[in-house]
Amino acid sequence: MSLKPIVVFAALCLAACSDKVASGASEDVGITPLERWQVAGVSQKGPFVTGSTVNVLELDGSTLTQTGKIFKSSIRSDKGDFAISGSGLVSQYAMLEVDGYYRNEITGQVSSGSLVLNAITDLSHRENVNVNLLTHLEFDRVKNLVSQGYSVKKAKDQAEREIIVTMAMNESSKKFEDMNIFELGDENGMLLAVSVLMQSDVDVAGLTERMGKFSLDLEQNGSWNDSLTRAAIADWASKASEDSTFKNIRKNVLAWGISDTLPNFEKYVDMFWYDNYGLGECTNSNAGDTAVNMNDKSSRFGDIFICNNERWEYSHRKKSLYKGDFGTLVDVRDGRTYKTVQIGDQVWMAENLKYSYPTNEPLTACLGDLPQYCENYGRIYSFAAAMDSAGLFGDGGIGCGLSSSLCDLKESSRGVCPEGWHLPSEDEWTILIATAGGNVTASRTLRSANDLGTDDYGFNMTSQSVGFWTSSKRKYAGSQFDHVVYLDVNNEQVLSFWPGESNAWFIGRNVRCIKDQESNN
Prior knowledge:
The chain is α+β, with helices and mostly antiparallel strands. It is about 25% helix and about 20% strand.
C-alpha cells in the first residue's frame, strides 16, 4: 500500500490550518521550550535612563499569560540600552517590561515620573528586541487575537497594521521591535512621530492615561476611537507645525548626544493631523487649494488651511481692507440680525442667509449636518427652497425646483429672503462683480480676509460657501432646456456662472440676499 496519498493529505491539512492555530505559534511551528536564550536592545520613549528596571517575564505559549517566572536586569546607560540572558523558558514567548524614567522629546528633560513599556517577543529567533511605545500599544491587541486562535506572528502582524492605519501613516515593512528613533528611515520616523504625538502637551500621568485608553480601544476592535483625545492631539500637532516646536524637538533629541541624525518624524505628525481634520492630501497638483477643518471635536473647527510646498499651512487670519460702515437687517421671521453693506448702488447682506425654510421638502440643511456650519456660514438651500416654491412669501417661485419644469420663474422675486429683500438675478450679481473689479479680481476683493481674500467691500464671501443661487434661467450651449443659474468660484479662483440642476431639489447652495431697489434709501 502506498503512503503517498496520506502524505499529501497531511500536507494539505497543514496548509489549510496555518492562519489560525489552537495556540500561539511563531512562524506557525508550535510551542518551543528554550533551554538558553539572550536578548539585547534599547528601550525608548525617549530613551529610558540608567538604572531603569528591565524584566523578562516567561509567558505560557498557549495563552500568553505570565507564568510567574521573571528574569531581572536594568538599563545600562542613558542611551536606554540593555542586555539580559537566562535559561529555561516553557515557550519561546516572553514579555519584556521596562519601568523607569525616560527622556522627554518635547521638553528635552528627564520625565517627572516613571513609565512602564512592554513588548511581546519570540526569543527563538530574536536576540535583539527594542521596547518602545508601539510595541506597548500593540501588546493587549496581540493577546486578544491569540485568544481568538491567531498565531502570535499573525496577531502581531495584524496589530501592527491596525496601529499604523489608526495613526494615518504609511504601511510599514519593519517590525515594531526593530524600530529606533535615532536611526534614519520612514518606519523609525513613524515611531518618533507616535512618541511625540502621544506625549504632546501632557505629563507622565496624562501619557499613561492616553496609552491605556488607546490600548483598550485597540484590544477590542483594532482601532482607536477616542475622538476627543485624537482631536486634542491633532490640535496640538497643527499648532506645533506653525511655530518652532518641531525644531526644538530635534534640537532636544540631538542634544542628548546619542545620534547626529534623526528620521523625518515631522512628516508623520503632519499626516496624523491632516487626516484628523479631513484635509486630504497636499501635493504639487493641488498647490494653492484651501481646505477646512471638518472635525467638530477640534478647537480649530472651521479653520482654513492652504496647500503650499506640499504641506497644509494655516491661512492666517488677515484684517479686512473694508473701511466703510455696515448696516443692520433684522429678519422678523426668526429674530436673526445680519450685517448689510452698500457696494456701488446695491445693498447686500454681508453674510449668508441662515433662515430655516419651514417645510420638509424642499430641503434646507447645514453643511455636513453640523449646526455650527449654519451658525458660522449660513444654511444651504435647494433651488426650490431658495425660490420659496411653497409660496410662503410670494408667488414668484411657486413650484420652482420640484419638477423638470423651471416654472414661471420671475427674476428678482423675494424667494426665501426677508421682507424688502430678494434673491438676486444673474444681472444683479454681474453688476456686483463688475463693481468689485471683474470676475478674476472680484474673487479676491469680495472674499473674506480670513479666506485669502482682501474683502475690500465688506462682502465677506467665505470659502465654506458652496455656490450662490440666482433667480435667473438661461439656455446653455448644447442644451435644449433652460437651466437655473448659480454663481461659483471655480478651480482657477474666478467667479463664474454655471447651469444648475433645474429639477434637483436636493442640491444645496447658499443664498445671499440683495435689497429691493425701491427700499435702498
